[in-house]
Amino acid sequence: MTNKKEITAGIIIIGNEVLSGRTKDINTSTLAKWLNSLGIQVKEVRIIADDEAIIIETVNNLRKRFNYIFTTGGIGPTHDDITAESVSKAFNLNYGFHKEAYSILEKYYKPGEFNDGRQKMAKMPTTANLILNPTSGAPGFYVDNVFCLPGVPSILQSMIGGLNNILIGGDPILNLTISLRTVESEIAKSITEIQNKNKDVEIGSYPFFKAGKLGVSIVLRSSNRNKLDQCNKEILNFVNSKSIKIIEDV
Amino acid sequence: MTNKKEITAGIIIIGNEVLSGRTKDINTSTLAKWLNSLGIQVKEVRIIADDEAIIIETVNNLRKRFNYIFTTGGIGPTHDDITAESVSKAFNLNYGFHKEAYSILEKYYKPGEFNDGRQKMAKMPTTANLILNPTSGAPGFYVDNVFCLPGVPSILQSMIGGLNNILIGGDPILNLTISLRTVESEIAKSITEIQNKNKDVEIGSYPFFKAGKLGVSIVLRSSNRNKLDQCNKEILNFVNSKSIKIIEDV
User: B17 at the A interface (CB within 8 A)?
Assistant: First the structure.
């Protein structure tokens, strides 16, 4: 099995409502699972304020470090939606009406309803590529390796599939979960030994509490199916040798 | 009303399980709401991998920029729990058994059950201050302005109250939400005008979709009660003038 180069991504969640705790971010999970399926690993997420200087600095820092950057939030019609203008400045690109986006939105709204706020959603780097929005019309966009998506989860979810043929991924990250009726400290030593023997598999250990009982989920992740299977076998051998119960439905 | 200095915080979520999308982070929301109530504003959140070099770099970067840093995750008994050792290295402090933590854990477990994994949870910067854990024994700790908490939300929640008298906050951040039966683009222009006249109030606009109907929540945030009330009055005047319906139970 050949190993392709690792393909990486960073996510920038833009929004005071997440920093204030009012809104729980679920876009990270959506994006990470989707990217994993394309063989792209999320390496870092930053949640930042609706602040132009901070957006510019964060975009310019992360876009050099990772293959792909995804931003969420700040591309709507209101005064606090400043992502499109900030990203234009980050790339030194002209911010203004994007012809194709304007045309899409003009057709989307009834005559007379395409007001200033709605027109604002057609403003972005004028040379950007669009990310179509099958839910609510207003497109996202991308410039170079920076993909700008909306913050509303259901709209974001409806748009990402359109990027499947644009992103170039690596080997898909395979994962496998074994849930055990035990506590972490009872298995820590053995799992450490197995991790040391299986360097190409990332082993995570996550305690849980469900239906009044404690358990631990062991999660194996690797892009190499054989190595994943070998590691899984070693864990099952250990689990059997200690008579630890495997839980099927976590 | 005097304005105290703004007191800021950064949050570092440590865990591959969040970056992979397997686990949705809810600790940010818990911490942010609690910190707001103490007059401390979260300015940035980073979600990073279980990687020593990255943890050290992130802790050392953020602790210089914000008054307080909170880390979550990576202080359990397993091989992937490396926060305590990494934070020790970030501060050039000795990593080893913390006497008080060891004593707490030794008493917490039954004789013979205080095994290697459990003992590992007593290892941290040896001079750290402890954050007591009323749920599951193993304490968190803090060094200087960096507070290290567990990743399991229910345990984290049970521990933060113990810090209320240790953190020094600013004026509490007051907030007020007005939910409207409208869409953002219909109110964008007027809200922008109100924001421009009320610089000391942060106005956020958040569309929602509930029970089959669209709406927008306008969220006002300020540490100044009078300015918050004034801004609220201007928004209600505008809402009444346009006969936009206010929704009470969002």
Answer: yes
Q: Which domain, by its residues, includes A65? A: 7-163
Residues A186 and A106 in one domain: no
| ipTM beyond cut 0.85 | yes
Please answer yes or no on whether B219 and A22 come within 8 Å at the CB atom: yes
Q: The whole model's pTM is what?
A: 0.93
Q: What is the mean pLDDT of residues A2-6?
A: 63
- What mean pLDDT value characterizes chain B? 94
Is residue B142 helix, strand or coil?
Answer: strand
Q: Check CB contact of B78 with chain A, cutoff 8 Å.
A: yes
Residues A53 and A115 in one domain: yes
Burial class, B114, CB count within 10 angstroms (exposed 0-12 / middle 13-18 / buried 19+): middle
Residues in chain B closer than 8 A to A192 (CB atoms) = 78-79
A30 with A119, same domain: the answer is: yes
User: If you search the block for the tokens 């922008």, which residue do you land on?
Assistant: B192
Q: In which element (H, E) is residue A227 found?
A: helix A225-241
- Whether B41 and B6 have beta carbons less than 8 Å apart is answered as yes
Instruction: Please report, for the domain that includes residue B42, its CATH number.
Output: 3.40.980.10
Do A190 and A90 reside in the same domain of the chain? no
Q: Quote the tokens at residue A28.
A: 């990270």
Residue A21 with chain B: CB contacts under 8 Å: 28-33, 36, 42
d(CA B54, CA A131): 32
Amino acid at B135: T
B45 occurs within a structural domain = yes
Note whether B76 contacts A48, CB cutoff 8 Å: no
Task: Give CA–CA dist B202/B239, Å, rounded.
Answer: 18
Chain A positions touching B33 (Cβ under 8 A) are 20-21
What mean pLDDT is predicted for residues B143-170? 96
Looking at the fold, whether B93 and B126 belong to one and the same domain comes out as yes
Here the CATH number for the domain that contains residue B222 is 3.30.70.2860
Same domain, residue pair A17 and A53: yes
